[in-house]
Write a structure and sequence with these properties.
Oligomer: single chain
Shape: extended
Strand content: 5-15%
Number of strands: 3
Structural class: mainly alpha
Distance between the termini: 54 Å
Low-confidence stretches: none
Number of helices: 5
Order of helices and strands: HHEHHEEH
Helix content: over 70%
Radius of gyration: 20 Å
Length: 130
Amino acid sequence: MSRRNTDVSDQFSEHACALAEVVDRVSGKWAIGVLVAAAAGPIRFTELERTVEGISRRMLTLTLRNLERDGLLIRTVYPTVPPKVEYELTDVARELHESLAGLTAWAERHRTTIAEARRAYDQQHAKTAG
């Protein structure tokens, strides 16, 4: 019986780790920025670099590779000189974008409430710490 429990625990652990890895990958600010920027249609590297504020070329390259590896971006290289490369969302990424848009809208609606709650919390804990 204990072997069976271990098998279930191992399966749950493997599933949880895989899920956490995916969530970590797509919830980073750079990944979200790239996914949002690419949502309007195919976009080139330089356009992404200008659109995703604060991202370095190296971080953009790594983010694009990871998103492509995860099946969220399609990278198309056109045989021109210099080569033209475009990135676009896969169907899975479009579905993810809908969720991100909902989360972003929620955060925007509740931004003031959250800021007020933080101020109240900080004031209350400043009094008890001092």
